[in-house]
Amino acid sequence: MNKRNPWSFPMLAASLALYLPHLALAQESAAAPIARNMSEMKFGELPGLPTCAQGSVQSGDPGKGPSIILAKLTRGCTIPWHWHTATENVMLAGGAGRLEMKDGKPHTLKAGGFAMLPSHHIHQFHCENNCALFIYSDAAFDIHYVNAKGSEFPPGEALQAVKEKAASAMK
């Protein structure tokens, strides 16, 4: 005799009821397809980051919500200890960089490397060899620099320690 699980249909119906609105929202928010090479992108300074980091917004609006930014950092560029309100996903497309995380061991990311940094997680990044990296932020992008004690302080002071200055706006 073939027994049927009486919960299978209700579970499927509940799952679809929860999933379909998200699928519809994702389709509504999708813009026209995008395809471009790095040579076609316009790069500019990223507010609050050192001037040795240039960025090109690939999708979204970093000031208002989720976004993807392609960043290029010159060899030796350091983004000192900081955290973000959003979860930050970093995918290294080229070069190599050292990622240090509070309460974690340092990790050298190379082309194809990935890191996920939860909201408010303190970390720093040092580009060892001309880095190109995609940054996906699941909410508006911000940066909060912290000192050795974990206290927040202005970008200008934080970047002075690495002989850099903060970019003021994306050009």
Task: Note down, in words, how this protein is organized.
- This protein is of the alpha+beta class and 171 residues long.
- The chain has a domain at 43-160: Jelly Rolls (Sandwich), CATH 2.60.120.
- The protein has helices at residues 8-29, 155-160; strands at 44-45, 53-60, 67-73, 78-83, 88-101, 107-110, 114-117, 123-137, 144-145.
- The chain is globular and about 45 Å long.
* Radius of gyration, CA atoms, in whole angstroms: 20 Å
Any idea what the shape is?
Answer: globular
| N-to-C series of helices and strands | HEEEEEEEEEH
- In the CATH scheme, what's the topology name of the domain at 43-160? Jelly Rolls
What's the CATH architecture of the domain at 43-160? Sandwich
**How many strand units?**
9
CATH class of the domain at 43-160: Mainly Beta
Q: Let me know the average pLDDT.
A: 84
Give the fraction of residues assigned to helices. Answer: 10-25%
Category by helix and strand content: alpha+beta
> Which regions contain 5 or more consecutive residues with pLDDT less than 50?
4-28
Outline of this structure?
The protein is α+β, with helices and mostly antiparallel strands and 171 residues long.
Describe how the helices and strands are arranged.
Blueprint: H1 8-29, E1 44-45, E2 53-60, E3 67-73, E4 78-83, E5 88-101, E6 107-110, E7 114-117, E8 123-137, E9 144-145, H2 155-160
Antiparallel strand pairs: 1-2, 2-3, 3-8, 4-8, 4-9, 5-6, 5-7, 5-8
